[in-house]
Amino acid sequence: MGIVLTLIIVGIVLLILGIAVKAAMFLLWIGIILLVIGAIMWILRQVRSRA
Predict the structure, then answer these.
(1) Spatial distance between the Cα atoms of 30 and 51, rounded to a whole number of angstroms
(2) Using CA atoms, how far apart are residues 51 and 43, in angstroms rounded to an integer?
């Protein structure tokens, strides 16, 4: 659970930085990718724990 939470937190921080600093648009994309990976990992953990 720790790695999933870390990915989500880092993703949110990079999204905020990417939006705040227009010169660092790649941070926005990295943040989105990390949020998606974190969400997928969280969903997989939820499905596996119920099975």
Answers:
(1) 32
(2) 13
**Number of continuous H segments (helices) and E segments (strands) in the chain:** 2, 0
| 2-20 and 25-50 helices, crossing angle to 10° | 160
Q: Which residue has the tokens 């990976």?
A: 37
pLDDT tens profile 1-23: 688 888 888 888 877 777 767 66
C-alpha distances (whole Å) from 8 to each of 11, 23, 40, 47, 50 are: 5, 23, 11, 18, 22
